[in-house]
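Q: Convert this sequence to structure tokens.
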Amino acid sequence: MSVSPSCSLGCTCRNHPVHPSMRVREALEAYLAENGFTVAAYRDAWTRASFFGLPFWVPNTARHRWAIMLHDLHHVATGFGTDLPGEGEISAWEARRAGMRALGLYVGGIVLGGAIFGMVISPRRTLAAYRAAPSPMSSLFGAEASYESLLDLTVGELRARLDLPAHGLAEGTRRLHPDAPKAPARVVAAA
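A:
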């Protein structure tokens, strides 16, 4: 994919993948803004989720908090969206990459459920994401690096660490969950 003519090199619009030279910290900020998420929500006792548009709350245990922070970095690296098929893709990719033991029963169940749901609603995309993870046990869930050190990498360095192509895995425009802000955030990295 190439950068559209109306976008600068560091643009994070949904029409193309985050550029490999952008810092992970900046790309994460753009991802969170684009989806209406916040860093503060990582510390909340409960996390809002939805299933077929029906909202519900899940406990944000220490293990869940750790996993969701890394899950969001996986979104940044792969480029998978946050709509239902995109969550199916990322869940299938994570299930193959992480293995369920690394995640524990609660978080592993969420990931496995997302992958199974993805196979129901978007089987081709979900299976392609699963197949795009040829190296089991190489997700951020097994990384020994600190979260802060991951944020200091460039997106290209993060993708290389995850053995991903330079521009991630997602094809086409990133689609967002239904509760995302209607006007996507545009964050441009400083030159």
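Residues 44 and 82 are 20 Å apart (CA to CA).
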